[in-house]
Amino acid sequence: MGEIVSGLSRSWWHGLFVLAAIAGASVLTLISLGDLRREAPVPDNRPIESQIPGYATSNACRACHPGNYASWHASFHRTMTQVATTASLPNMDKLELAFNGRDYKVEQRNGAFFVRQRPQGGNYGQAQQIVLVTGSHTLQILWLETGRGRTLEQFPFAYIVAEKTWAPTSETFLIPPELKEYYSIGAWNGA
What we know:
single chain; 9-stranded antiparallel beta sheet; two-stranded antiparallel ribbon
């Protein structure tokens, strides 16, 4: 007969401890699975994957056209438009640029990049988040939130990948000489 601890055997306490440990692990697993099932909120300041019936994403093509999908996936075309992240953008923290009498200051906060603009003789305005990048292996164009839904504004500088340098966007494209600046504002997803 085993030693009695407060009226109960040691093996009984051991069994209770094992049962409590299993129950605790089960609760933690259920909590973790619940967190995984929660969808991230849909961003309202940039374009998103379209939910329009009949619209097919690249993943829908994969099953029926594996060769075409593999070719596309291995190409730069796959990365021509990406959500702006630290992985898709060059290091821009504390970047300062100037063009046509305006100063631009870039800062990184919580894994996202923001731009502040200052007109000549003025103060820096409100930060705009860099939310999208187009281009890929030679030139990257950045797109800023505008505060008007999914409408984006082009950052006035482009990143030249091979040279690891920034240049005014108007100096990287052929445009009529009378245009001093050329930036576009785009409405994406019916913004």
